[in-house]
Amino acid sequence: MLTRNCLLLFLWILVNEGSVSSLHPPSPPLGRGRTGREHARSSVGPMRNGAAGFQRVKRGWVWNQFFVLEEYMGSDPQYVGKLHTDLDQGDSAVKYTLSGEGAGSIFTIDQTTGDIHALRSLDREEKPYYTLRAQAVDINTNRPLEPESEFVIKVQDINDNEPKFLEGPYTASVPEMSPVGTYVTQVTATDADDPTYGNSARVVYSILHGQPYFSVDPKTGVIKTALPNMDREVKEQYQVLIQAKDMGGQLGGLAGTTTVNISLSDVNDNPPRFSKIGVYVIPESSAVGSAVGKIKAHDLDIGKNAEVEYTIVPGDGGAMFDITTNEHNQEGIIVLKRPLDYESKKAYTFKVDASNVHLDPRFQSFGAFKDTATVKINVLDVDEPPVFNKPSYVMDVYEDTPAGTIIGAVTAQDLDASSSPVRYSIDWKSDMDSYFDIDPVEGTISTNELLDRESISQHNISVVATKLSNPVLTSRVAVTVHVLDINEFPPELASPYETFVCEHSKVGQVIQTFSAQDQDLPSAGQQFSFRSPKDDFKNKNFTIRDFGNNTAGIVTKRAGFRRRLQEIYFLPVVIDDNGYPPKSSTGTLTIRVCGCESDGSLLTCSAEAIFLPVGLSTGALIAILLCIVILLVIVVLYVGLRRQKKKETLMSSKEDVRDNVIHYDDEGGGEEDTHAFDMGTLRNPKVVKENLYRRDVKPEMKRGPRPPVSQDSADIRDFINQRLTEHDTDNSAPPYDSLATYAYEGDGSVAESLSSIESVAIDLEEDYDYLSDWGPRFKTLAGIFGEQSETQSDSTTMENTH
Q1: What structural domains and CATH numbers belong to the chain?
Q2: Are 467 and 386 in contact (CB under 8 A)?
Q3: Closest among 77, 80, 155 to 119, alpha carbons compared
Q4: Which segments cross the bilayer (predicted)?
Q5: 156 or 408: whose pLDDT is higher?
Q6: Is a pLDDT exceeding 60 seen at residue 373?
Q7: What are the start-end ranges of the E strands in 470-580?
Q8: N or C end: fewer C-beta atoms under 10 angstroms in the chain?
Q9: What is the model's pLDDT at position 363?
């Protein structure tokens, strides 16, 4: 410091002695770099002779950068530099001013001399430089003598900051058994000093603690393994101390440290190992699926590398047991696979293998990653309850079976070495009504009373077997008793079979298969047998063959069947069932003889077909039948037309054989008029119906019945004989047979007679007005007969008068 101050003073003296009038600071101390300078071209200052204006003066060199040491610890303000102008003649007429960053607070200037001082200690890491402006003004007028000049005061760095690990402490991991040079992690230290100035910020890394296991690159800070085959099972955690030193690691440099915690991660480099042989004792009553014991193979690895899989080596007792792995603690759990029986086998010995699930191929050369242990299991005898020979029993009994009938039996035995006797009983809760009983020694179950299937079709009872030597030990079994329906209906044919046999059938040919049915329930399980009746041994035509599957067949016993000789055969068949009691019935099978093709297909079964000409096709037969039908229709139409024509001729003839028949154009009652009169009476006088009334209209006025004319009346015989003679002698009569009406009318008509044959016997004063009540069709008839009645009455009166 003293040397620097002396140098500055020397330079100041040299400047003051010179004739340079420009504003310039003194030279910086020796060893400080200069960033640049500028040459003053001219300087303008006030006229000394009092003349107005400025005159241009020549300026000297002006330094625009100063340096100040950081962390200055002196008691006096630190001298920074000096400002001077050529216009300053030393008469204190020039005043220097300072402005900018830190002016007045950090930096100060002597207004008269231009000396700049730092008022306090500066830290480059806080602010590396300050920019200020200086100006020389007239002390009296404050007018600037020169333009304002800007310069920089730079804080010069010193090595006052040690390297720091901002991210420390570090944690890293590397697989165990890694080779030398395996990357672990990288550490980084930062130095706040100026990296562009000296070696203050150049850091070098080194290991203070952690050798010989790890190494660090001095420039990059990369940590690597330095020792091969580091085993996690030997040592898992390592703590490494890393140092970072500035000044390139030279003496006097500042240093910082950090800790790196390195752990070795596990790899599967250790096989599982059993520590002891497993010996277990279990009772023979152990349930299937229960745990028998535990066995464990220890693996020094951790995580998935320590996962162990257990297997039973096939051998002596391996089939009786199984083994699983507990995922939480990697134990092998031995499980019973089949029931144990002390009386059959008292001990089991087998081997168990333990192997890793996830293998690392890098370490397979070390050997097999598995181990084998021997397991011995001793079976402990236990006093067990009796055991039934079946898990459940099903029995069948017919309804109405007599009480005391044995329907079945249950069997249980003591499998222990003592082989104690067993006693049987029925749980009273399952048979509240005591339908069944059981023999306590034999175990046979019998009915206690009559069973009714319609009331209870199924009984579920529970049979208890008790060990005689230890009554506490019991076992139960379920017994289901089905009440069967007795056989009430005989079997019968499944359908009314009608079959045929071909005329050219061979002996022993099955021409029909048939089956049977039974209305008894259940239909499933029914068995039927078929046979011919005992008295049917004379049958030379057909026989019955039972197929044994509820079906049978009709078999021919001869050949040469002919429809001309016999068209239909009836074959009886006896059907038996397997019910209780057994039932049978006899059915009849109808067999028709038919004509068939050579392959057995049916042609016709009609007996008339044999008389038809051979070779006529079906189409020809249909054509012949159609022609016959057409001819019959023509004949019927012809006969009908002839009868209609003949009827019209007789009815329209003006010379009708009836007397006093009046023709009129009104339409009659049609069918009802026809039914009003019985025309058969005219043909057969013996058939006389009494009081045949009209069926279309109910007359309001009923007239008494006319007395029938005697059949033996001489008048009728004479009348008929006369008319018969007239017809026989009539030359105009047709030369063929014809129907002659002799005009005899019966008395059964409701409207009574319309002719005048019986007019003599009728009261002349008969009233025909009731015909008007029958409708408009009979009004005209009533008027005509009413007039005739009046005329006849008048004539009779006149005759009587005469």
Answers
A1: 65-156 (2.60.40.60), 164-265 (2.60.40.60), 273-371 (2.60.40.60), 387-484 (2.60.40.60), 492-604 (2.60.40.60)
A2: yes
A3: 77
A4: 610-641
A5: 408
A6: yes
A7: 474-484, 492-493, 498-502, 510-517, 528-531, 542-546, 551-556, 568-577
A8: C
A9: 79
